[in-house]
Design goal:
Layout lengths: L1 H26 L4 E2 L6 H19 L23 H19 L3 H59 L3 E2 L1
Antiparallel strand pairs: 1-2
Helix pairs in contact: 1-4, 2-4, 3-4
Length: 168
């Protein structure tokens, strides 16, 4: 089970995060209009100059592939599980059965059932918490990227507007 969870996490990091960033990039494309009748050649030169300036001002390069600013949350050691819980429960059941002079096999069976149930619940909680931490991390990374892109767009727009273009 742990290896399939690892594969899903790796797949999400490899494909999901870039897709989040790509969607953000697509929605941030600016439209530039040559308000003072600039030629296409002049507009392309000005756009490149402003790209360089905005990149330097913001510290963000929209042409570079998105990267994360921090590693995804580390997965903790697998805890709980039905089998582990059942084994612990059976051991406790045998001990209780010996102390109370009850049937050891019945006490072990009852302990195994209770332990298995508790172990399964514990593992589910651990997986849920791990998934929650990964989702929170992905959202934080997407927010950081959007903020950096917004700062770049503001600088890029200011530069082009200073050169006589209308930017939307």
């Amino acid at each position: 089970m742990n290896s399939s969870l690892d594969k899903i996490l790796k797949l999400f990091v490899a494909i999901g995060i870039p897709l989040i960033f790509a969607g953000s990039v697509m929605s941030n494309e600016l439209i530039v209009f040559p308000a003072q009748g600039q030629s296409t050649q002049q507009m392309e030169k000005d756009k490149y100059d402003c790209y360089q300036w905005a990149k330097q001002q913001s510290g963000f390069d929209p042409m570079a592939p998105p990267v994360t600013s921090s590693a995804p949350p580390a997965q903790g050691a697998q805890q709980g599980g039905v089998v582990k819980g059942a084994a612990r429960g059976a051991l406790v059941g045998v001990t209780v059965g010996a102390i109370t002079n009850n049937s050891k096999s019945r006490s072990a069976a009852a302990g195994a059932a209770a332990g298995g149930l508790m172990g399964g619940m514990s593992r589910r909680d651990q997986v849920r918490q791990q998934n929650q931490a990964e989702q929170q991390w992905a959202q934080q990374e997407a927010n950081k990227y959007a903020q950096q892109r917004n700062n770049y767009n503001r600088a890029y727009s200011a530069c082009l507007e200073g050169k006589g273009y209308t930017v939307k």
